[in-house]
Amino acid sequence: MTTAAWGTAPAEAHAPIGVPLVDLLDRVLATGVVISGDVVIAIAEVPLVRLSLHALLSSVNERVPAPWTDGGPL
Question: What is the pTM of this model?
Answer without folding.
Answer: 0.40
